[in-house]
Amino acid sequence: LGRKLNAALSSLNRVSIVDEKVLDTLLKEVCAALLESDVNVKLVSQLRQKVRIKVKAVFESGGEKAKEANKKNLIQKAVFDELVSLVDPGVEPYKPKKGYPNVIMAVGLQACGTLLPGNGKTTTCTKLAVHYQKRGYKASIVCADTFRAGAFDQTRQSATKAKVAYFGSYTETDPVAIAAQGVAKFKKEKFEVIIVDTSGRHKQESELFEEMIQIGHAVKPDMTVLILDASIGQSAEAQSRAFKESADFGAIIVTKMDGHAKGGGAISAVAATKTPIIFLGTGEHLTDLDRFSPQPFISKLLGLGDVQGLMEHMQDLATQNPDRQKEMAKKLEEGKLSIRDWREQIQNVMNLGPISKIASMIPGLPQDLLQGSDEEGALRMKRMIYITDSMSSMELDSDGTVFMESAKDGKPIGLTWRVSRVARGSGTTVREVEELLCQYRMMANMAKQAGGKNGWLQAMQKIQ
Ligand code: GDP
Ligand code: MG
Fold this sequence. Notes:
By secondary structure, the chain is an alpha/beta fold. It contains 20 helices and ten strands.
């Protein structure tokens, strides 16, 4: 969708005179791209009309904006604004509060009787729990899917992997009872985010909706989230309306945005139910969850970049543990950052997700981490962690000089036996350990020289 929209808009740059005919051709291309991605037909024709009316009015006004030089911008902006308003219902989604048991219920429908994989509810529940846990909430998951065999096992496995508390039952067959028990238990244990995962299948669709109503009554969710698969297509409108009536959801998450699906159906769901999208699922990993906001989303769709997303990732790092980050900034400034501290920074980055998104902001990370794919980058970072894992406490807390053999005047002349021990212990090579120490030293020197003043950690402190 992005490529086609982008192509349509940039074709504007090739024409010298922008008249109504050009406008109509462009709108036709934009609409074709939207329809092809399964955006609802009615919405597309509305968009076309709105842009046309808006642009024509300015053209005819004869004012400054109607000058030939400004016409292209005018059209691009009108299309941009209309696309944004398609995915922006202007409603603020619920925001979990600290120190309060926020109950979040996930709902969604899997076409009856099919053997297709689910739309990603269970995966998304775990991703959400991880997301909130990273932000300091005590998070948990309740598995209220008793329809699918193995549902609780799946929750148990993914929650364990994510180190999130979970609740479910192998014997209880009433999803309402399980949901109520789980939420009551986690409330008592002072959990701040309690996510209720429900079934997406039933013998009869109407029974599924009834079940959602009952679970809703039992757990009184603060927010109900409709989970939609990006490939949902034109049935999105009817399905989301049906859910809106039974389980009045206040937010939408669109999963599998990384796949071939075009996501247009999800746009229709937003428009049909006036409910905001809050996250996009972008992969099978637990960190593949991107915050959604309308403008950057459309901006990315049109190939205009996403600065806001980058800032959010930085903020995430800072808010996870502000005190610790401040301490790090101070150490950096004073040139006292130990290998242990540095490892923590690397781990922070790894926890945040795709490396290419953020690594360039982290001081001292070797540039070659940014080359190649995210997987390769992640692997290189993991090897760095393995190496530091084989260091002793004393070594980790040091500034790396213990690995150096020094001459009497203090000049380093070689490596000590410690290096080969670490290489053996971590299953890496002496060369890799040497490289890591060298990178650490470069980082420490760089930080000392810059006094940390204009560095990344300083920038983070300003965000607070
Ligand atoms: P449920 O039946 O609705 O609970 O769906 P599941 O959470 O079990 O997910 C079904 C399948 O979709 C699993 O194989 C997941 O790994 C996969 N999946 C879920 N979310 C995403 C996503 O955002 N991207 C990709 N590529 N796969 C996903
Ligand atoms: Mg499931």
